[in-house]
Amino acid sequence: MPARQIAGFAVAAALLFILLKYAAGPMTGDSSAFDRALLLALRDPAGPSIPLGPFWLRKSMVQLTSLGSGAQLGLIVVIAAGWLIVRRMTCSALLLAGAAASGGMAITFLKDRFSHPRPMLVEHFVEVQSASFPSAHAANSAIVLLTLAALLARIETRRAARRYIIGVALLLTILIGVSRVYLGVHWPSDVAAGWTLGAGWAGMWLMLGTAIDRDDPWRKR
Known about the structure:
Layout: H1 2-21, E1 27-28, E2 31-32, H2 33-41, H3 55-65, H4 70-86, H5 90-114, H6 136-154, H7 159-182, H8 188-212
Antiparallel strand pairs: 1-2
């Protein structure tokens, strides 16, 4: 069941956030000792301005992180919603759009509410302007990719195909979040909080859609 996998990911992300933020040492400003250690672990011991790995890895991370931007995810939502409407699955299209739009507003509100500064411990390799907590890239990618994957999985009859769809969505969500830490623009706990919020938001909207229409119109083939 897609819902169970999404819920499991949300719980795992929440536990990771608690570990990073509260259970792994004293707080230093807006970060914990574990946050700082993980961020530095991704940099060369010779200096925090040098990320681990070859140049192509840094370039790949920059390209990967762009998949979690508002423009990229918005395009995915528009294309996917259009396809769902063509398939006469309007309820699913509205569910996807509603989850993405409301989730984006919630994340913006939380960023403004907490106003945590970005980590200055290491050099940033992409431009950032908003506050750090929670990671919008991690949260929005989880909302869009997991909601869409769950909708697609529910119209797929083969178990292996359903697992593949959910697995790819989870993998992309994780990689986008990891890229934010690797590029130095988020504390690991920011990303874990984003994953928790995004997966939880996706699960909430999927349950809402089921409650509104017990016939699950996205199952229509």
